[in-house]
From TrEMBL:
Highest rank taxon of the organism: Bacteria
Annotated organism of origin: Fusicatenibacter faecihominis
Domain ABC transporter intervals: 2-227
Annotated Gene3D superfamilies: P-loop containing nucleotide triphosphate hydrolases
Spans traversing the lipid bilayer: none
Family classification: Belongs to the ABC transporter superfamily.
Protein name: ABC transporter ATP-binding protein
CDD domains referenced in this protein's UniProt entry, alphabetically: ABC_DR_subfamily_A
Species lineage: Bacteria, Bacillati, Bacillota, Clostridia, Lachnospirales
GO molecular function: ATP binding; ATP hydrolysis activity
Cited Pfam families: ABC_tran
Keywords: ATP-binding, Nucleotide-binding, Transport
Length: 294
């Protein structure tokens, strides 16, 4: 169980994290969703005991993270956004080193994780691609079978196969009763793994909800391509939120379920549609007030 009580770390001029109070239970995958600079990494550094809170506290299994900072490496597995490694080592040597530092003997779990991710542990770390370094970071975060797993942008640099494998690995940790915290700027990545998501804006927790509830609130834009400009003009009379028109293409915004929107489309000759990639401030305009920076 991870607990936050009035946790505050201020770097001045409104930067940091402020008055966080919530819990993450055993067997829960909790998402920390926020744009750049919203405080995700600061929360991790407080959980890891790397930095001192200005006010309040956080704890892992009843132990205050600041007071028990020395014990935390054995309890917590951490994948930074851009993991760094001792370059002279091979992946296998790195896993052995991580295990020894955490006073564990077996590196089996690390080896199995690397195998499942398709990582060659005999390779020197200097020769690894960014994706392989991320895979080694994942194996290193799990090698000592920690109670709590902290993942900072875990899918960045991973291809689809590795993302799928990571989702499976995290599901298995959840089933074993571990608490997992998954921090990201991308909702889509988190929604297949997380049970609940906390939304951060400028260091404040603006909302906590389960993933299904957030899906219903998500505002998504699509570019619709009609068979002709005339069709597109006809479509503009419908009761939909139009964001832009360009010839036979119309951009619309839809909140929540798509189903009510489908009968409207059936009346027209639709040639294609494309989801517009949007930052979370736009997906959840309600929480971020439409601002493009956190
Ligand atoms: N050591 C520090 N000294 C001063 N300011 C800091 C420090 N660490 C973080 N900050 C500031 O605190 C705020 C939160 O930063 P943090 O790195 O936690 O955000 P983040 O959500 O992890 O961002 P990103 O998604 O870009 O990794 C930012 O405004 C950042 O500039």
């Amino acid at each position: 169980m991870i607990r936050f009580r009035n946790l505050t770390k201020s770097y001045g001029t409104g930067r940091g994290v402020f008055d966080l109070s919530f819990e993450i239970t055993d067997g829960e995958v909790f998402g920390l969703l926020g744009p750049e600079n919203s405080g995700k990494t600061t929360i991790f550094s407080l959980l890891l005991g790397f930095s001192t809170p200005g006010n309040g506290w956080c704890s892992v299994d009843g132990r205050n993270c600041h007071d028990h900072a020395k014990d935390l490496p054995c309890q917590i597995g951490y994948l930074p956004e851009q993991p760094e490694f001792p370059t002279a080592m091979t992946g296998l040597q790195y896993l052995r080193f991580q295990t020894a530092v955490r006073e564990r003997k077996s590196i089996e779990k690390g080896i199995r994780t690397a195998q499942r991710l398709g990582l060659n542990l005999e390779e020197k770390i200097t020769k690894l691609s960014p994706m392989d370094k991320k895979k080694l970071g994942i194996a290193g975060a799990l090698v000592h079978d920690p109670r709590v797993v902290l993942l900072d942008e875990p899918t960045r640099d991973l291809d689809q196969a590795a993302r799928h494998c990571l989702a499976e690995l995290i599901r298995e940790e959840k089933e074993k009763g571990k608490s997992v915290v998954w921090a990201s700027r991308e909702f889509e990545e988190m929604e297949r793994c997380c049970d609940r998501i906390g939304m951060l804006r400028r260091g404040n927790l603006v909302n906590i909800d389960d993933v299904a509830a957030l899906r219903r609130q998500k505002r998504q834009s699509y570019i619709l391509t009609f068979s002709s400009e005339q069709e597109a003009v006809g479509f503009l009379k419908e009761n939909v939120e139009v964001q832009g028109v360009c010839g036979s293409q119309v951009t619309v915004a839809v909140t929540g379920e798509l189903t009510p929107f489908l009968p409207v489309l059936e009346k027209y000759h639709l040639m294609g549609w494309e989801k517009v990639h949007q930052p979370i401030e736009v997906l959840f305009i309600h929480y971020y007030g439409g601002e493009i920076r956190g």
